[in-house]
Specification:
Distance between the termini: 124 Å
Strand content: 15-25%
CATH architecture of one domain: 3-Layer(aba) Sandwich
Shape: elongated
CATH class of one domain: Alpha Beta
CATH superfamily of one domain: P-loop containing nucleotide triphosphate hydrolases
CATH topology of one domain: Rossmann fold
Order of helices and strands: EEHEHEEHEHHEHEHEEHEEE
Largest sheet: 9 strands, mixed
């Protein structure tokens, strides 16, 4: 700084505004271009993942899933027993069955068919890798027989049971899913893990089903499921369309699907048991007549059957 004729002047070296600016180097330009490219790739990947998720919704792509509020069985005897007049959506429901018994699979498939009939979205089905060798694989034509489009199911095989639980929690955070199903078999779940699933289902509004193997007497563990069911296979019902008694007696094939569904625990509801029948033509459950499996009375008094 110097003084001329009573005025002060600042030198170029002392003034930041007068300092020369050097051009950016080639390495800095390359780093800036790489950062821009990475941002563009991440955005493209996000768009691709979103398109894959929407493609899993079948012909309902682009529609956002809305929680239906509740899942009705279609049978007033069951719906009126539950405090929500059906199964509450956005909650965890446990369904268990005996070992090597596909009753629980069929029961859940029927529930998913009723859920999918009124709402868009895909179903995430999580299971342990190799479980198909022990409990059997999912049969697509059987799902279609329930009215559930197999193309709306996303199957995920995990290495361990805890990985199945992790995949279920991640699935419950996806807004384009309709429901999440997890097969845990005899693997322990625990109160903490089930509580996380329940909270995730409440937050997203997605219904979650936990498939378990029926534990031994007195070995049932506590969990945070909103309702707990035990489902067993039952003799099939009358064959639809065969009104003639002779034709029904000659029929050797199976009739209507039936299960013995036991509500073991539910908040604000008492434990109950029903003989449930699935109606394919209407896509709903009905409670079978209580006299259907009783022994036939002797034709004449004094004769033993």
């Amino acid at each position: 700084m110097w003084r001329v004729a009573g005025k002060f002047y600042v030198g170029a070296k002392e003034s930041p505004s007068l300092m020369l600016r050097t051009a950016p180097s080639d390495s800095a330009l390359r780093a800036s271009q790489q950062a821009t490219t990475k941002v563009a790739k991440v955005a493209e990947l996000r768009r691709h993942i979103d398109s894959l998720e929407r493609a899993g919704c079948g012909g309902m792509a682009g529609k956002r899933v809305k929680a239906p509020g509740l899942l009705s069985f279609g049978a007033p005897e069951i719906d009126e027993t539950l405090p929500w007049r059906g199964l509450a959506s956005g909650a965890l429901h446990e369904i268990s069955g005996p070992v090597r018994d596909a009753a629980a699979f069929g029961f859940v498939s029927a529930l998913l068919a009723r859920l999918a009939a009124h709402s868009p979205g895909a179903v995430l089905w999580c299971r342990r890798l190799g479980a198909s060798y022990e409990t059997g694989n999912i049969y697509a034509p059987g799902l279609a027989a329930f009215g559930l489009d197999p193309s709306r199911l996303i199957f995920l095989d995990a290495k361990r049971g805890r990985d199945v639980l992790w995949a279920m929690r991640e699935g419950l955070s996806c807004p384009h899913l309709l429901a999440v199903v997890g097969e845990m078999e005899e693997s322990p779940v625990g109160l903490t893990a089930s509580r996380r699933l329940q909270l995730a289902a409440e937050k997203s509004g997605i219904t979650c089903f936990l498939l378990r193997t029926l534990p031994e007497e007195g070995a049932e563990e506590a969990n945070a499921a909103l309702s707990r069911w035990c489902v067993r296979a039952a003799p099939s019902g009358p064959v639809p369309g065969l009104t003639s008694v002779v034709a029904a007696e000659r029929w050797l094939g199976p009739g209507r699907l039936r299960w013995r569904a036991e509500l073991r625990r539910c908040r604000a509801a008492a434990a109950r048991e029903w003989l449930v029948e699935w109606r394919h033509e209407k896509g709903n459950f009905t409670v079978a007549a209580p006299l259907c499996d009783r022994p036939v009375k002797p034709a004449a008094a004094g004769l033993a059957l």
